[in-house]
Amino acid sequence: MTTLVVCLDRTDDVGRKTGLRSPVVGWEAVRALVTDVGLADPEDSGVNTLLESLRVAQNLRDENEEVVVAVVSGDHESMVSADRAVAEQLDDLIAEYDPDSAVVVTDSAEDERLIPIVESRVQVDSVDRVVVRQARDIESTYYLLKQFLADEELRQTVLVPIGLALLVFPLLATTVGPAQGAAAITAVIGLFLLYKGFNVDERLARLARQTQESLYSGQVSVVTYVVAAGLTFVGLFVGALGVSNLGETPGVVIPATRFAFDSIPWLAMAALTASAGRLLDEAIGDDPVRTSFLNLPFIVVAVSLVVRGFSAYFLEQQGVIEPFVVPANEFLIFSNERFVMVAGERLALFVVTAIVISLVGARIASSLSGSAEAAQRSDGGSEPELTNGGTAAEAGVDPDPEAPSDAVENPESEPGPDRRDPELTDGGADANRGANANPSSDPNPGSDAGDRDP
């Protein structure tokens, strides 16, 4: 069993310091290379890597294994050329020594990126990374910082806010005071962390992309969404106006209830407008309208009635609004009397109406979606299609007993399992000549079969 102990040097530090070309193969050659590298740069960790390669090779020799120790270097011009140089050198070593396995020795994370190249050519039994004890933590921190600075997204996310904070804090400290400056910077950093934590940037980018696609595709919902936004602003304004008319009211329950009571009709109209536009887009499209879009307008009306009913109940209990009064002539009763509906009756009427509307919406949505599916199924199977491989019975057509079979009408069609080529049988010629033919009268019964078209 031959084991290749290979020391990897991706950036060609050995070649630049000693002037030698890699690969360097053999115990004595690597041992001499240790002296050359140590004299050129005693502080280089590559010296320890070369010594570790010799130590591993010596241990394997003590176990009666055939060992080939080698140093493979890349190129310092570019990473692609370095990796290709290492791959070429490994191919030469494997072609010459034909090792069964390999032990890889490295001294940095940069060199460990060459391990997949080695694994693609020979089996790797072990990876030995050499780290100087005095510099273990420093080297690990260095490579972590190097990978961190190489990531552009991490740099923009972490370094840019820190740099802005360090620039703004001295200005705020000199103008408004250190405490106020620190508070302002802390608040901004907190908002930025929330912004990144909730993926607001991705949501805004997705919203902008969807808006652009809707504008270019000519969807009706674009116009209805704009109208819904306008109705929403009107509802908020009406609700705020109703709260301002309350005057001095302790607490926040009554103002919030008044805001909901006054704004809910406009907000419901906004939701109905938006859902109507989305429903029109679904109806115009090729796909059938989904049940959720059909049921959405009824749900909006039902929810708005429930909110309006409960807010009216609380406001009437506090004497903010008057009871609901219905004139008698509304019910075709010619009288001057009026029906006064108290708070509980009004709430019950709104809740019952909302439940009825939601049930009607669910019923209509299910019926429309069911009819659409039935129509789609009927369109897909209305016309039977006859093919050469099908039969009249499969297509729903009565077979004609006098009609010839497909085997007689089309003798050149694909032969079935029971059909035989008359050229390959002795009785093929007889079958073509007829049932009354005498097979013994023909001295060569198979000759006609070869000339006759089957």
Strand and helix layout:
Elements: E1 2-9, H1 13-18, E2 24-25, H2 27-40, H3 46-62, E3 66-73, H4 79-97, E4 101-106, H5 109-112, H6 115-119, E5 124-129, H7 136-150, H8 152-175, H9 178-197, H10 200-217, H11 221-244, H12 253-284, H13 291-317, E6 324-327, E7 338-341, H14 343-380, H15 406-409, H16 428-433, H17 445-451
Parallel strand pairs: 1-3, 1-4, 4-5
Antiparallel strand pairs: 2-3, 6-7
Q: What share of the residues does DSSP label as strand, in percent? A: 5-15%
Order of strands in the sheet with the most strands? 2-3-1-4-5
Determine Rg (CA atoms, Å): 44 Å
The tally of domains stands at 3
Mean pLDDT across every amino acid position: 76
Helical stretch tally: 17
Q: How many strands? A: 7
Helix percentage range: 55-70%
Series of secondary-structure elements, N-terminal to C-terminal: EHEHHEHEHHEHHHHHHHEEHHHH
Instruction: Give a quick account of the main beta sheet: strands, pairing sense, barrel closure.
Output: 5 strands, mixed
Low-confidence stretches: 381-454
Structure description:
- There is one protein chain.
- This protein has 454 residues and is an alpha/beta fold.
- The protein has 3 domains: 140 residues, no CATH class; 47 residues; 172 residues, no CATH class.
- Helix content is 62%, strand content 8%.
- Helix 8 packs antiparallel against helix 9, helix 11 runs antiparallel to helix 12 and helix 12 packs antiparallel against helix 13.
- The longest helix has 38 residues.
- The relative contact order is 0.05.
- The C terminus is likely disordered.
